[in-house]
Amino acid sequence: MAGEFYKKDLTDIFMTAVNRVNPESMLLNQCSLDGDTLTVSLHEQTEKYNLGDYNRVIVIGAGKATARMAKAVEAILGDRITEGLIAVKYGHTEDLSIIRTIESGHPVPDGSSVQAAEEILRLAHTADEKTLVINLISGGGSALLCMPYKNEEWECTFAAKQDTTKLLLECGAEITEINTIRKHLSGIKGGRLAEAIYPADSLNLILSDVIGDRLDSIASGLTVPDSSTFQEAIEIIEKYKLKKRMPTPAARIMMWGEAGTIPETPKPGNPIFEKSRNVLIGTNLAALKSAETAADKLGFNTAVLSSQITGEASEAAKFYLGIGRDIRRDLGMLQRPACIIAGGETTVTIRGSGIGGRNQEMALAFLAGLKNEQGIYFLSGGTDGNDGPTDAAGAFAAADIYSAGIKAGLSIQSYLDNNDSYNYFKQTGGLLITGPTNTNVCDVQIMLVV
Length: 450
Hints:
The protein is an alpha/beta fold. The chain folds into 2 domains: 5-13 and 285-449, 3-Layer(aba) Sandwich (glycerate kinase, domain 1); 27-282, Rossmann fold (3-Layer(aba) Sandwich), CATH 3.40.50.10180. Helix content is 38%, strand content 19%. The strands form 3 sheets. A 6-stranded parallel β-sheet has the order 6-5-4-7-8-9. A 6-stranded mixed β-sheet has the order 10-11-15-12-13-14, sandwiched between helices. Strands 1-2-3 form a 3-stranded antiparallel β-sheet. Helix 7 (175-184) crosses helix 9 (230-239), helix 12 (313-329) crosses helix 13 and helix 13 (358-370) packs across helix 16. The radius of gyration is 22 Å and the shape is globular.
């Protein structure tokens, strides 16, 4: 396997994984309308709703994959939908005829994120016992819906929420840690959307972008009980030494919350969740298993390692490279070339001023160790098609890319130190460009050993 051929196999396997978790096709397979009966059936979970019992059907939601989810719901329910509104990342849109779309900021919220949260919350508050609310939730919803917490006395400003999000993204905190803080600075997350919807029935269709598929972490748990506390949020801030860097309005919310002056997010056992049903429609593991099937058809000995890879992207790269070298040493015993598949969501601690994302960072760290070693080919990509604030889904690592860098006089370590993986791979032909995929189930790593 030489030249560009490895890129085709890696890309084909990756896109098979992405297409497996296309939320439109999944919902069309999992949901049906027979007369007045709406049925959602997935594995051992089945939810049924008699639409004749409701005067209104409202569709709301947020996430990078939510537009495609909304397209499926429109196809299934048509004019049964009274009205709807979703928030998506800029560019992650679909042509919808009933449900309105607001495009907003990700990974850092912007003014449109606030507008989307306010309008969706306002619509939720109109729901009553004769209303069915269908929530379409996917990864990215935390930033796309931003409503800084406020009451008669206390307020977290939008600027403080923005700055706090930036701090958390740069310090290397894991997504569950970031969302714990987001929930406690928000007027819509951590079950507070469910609180606004009550007493209406809600059907929450959820696409997971979170390690372990924790419903209380996906989009910061808009419709599920929140077991985290202000105290835990403060411990995370202290863990990453952010206390002195936190914007004053956000720090005050945390302090008042810990003191009990501000009410906690809705907890398990709260009656508002009795009328809320959550259905997990797609996961990273489902994507990985589909990739495994594709690799097997291409003639590879294939193994799925895990859907829960976390930690620093550069450290994960060393782990994968070590496995690749072990396999290559014993390749003769396998009779076929090997394909290793894994997924999850790593982090990057920002030290420089470059541009990139966790997948490109991982691929560049992999390349730093691989150098011009032959026979090992690696790809790390985000299933949403956007790795960090770039137009790339991820990047490839292989000997020919290393050689291109040497020829161009590029120092891998300098680009790593500056967190500038995008510009390294842009100059060496190593970027994976898919465009927005309108799905989102974390990241996928694929390694071929031949």
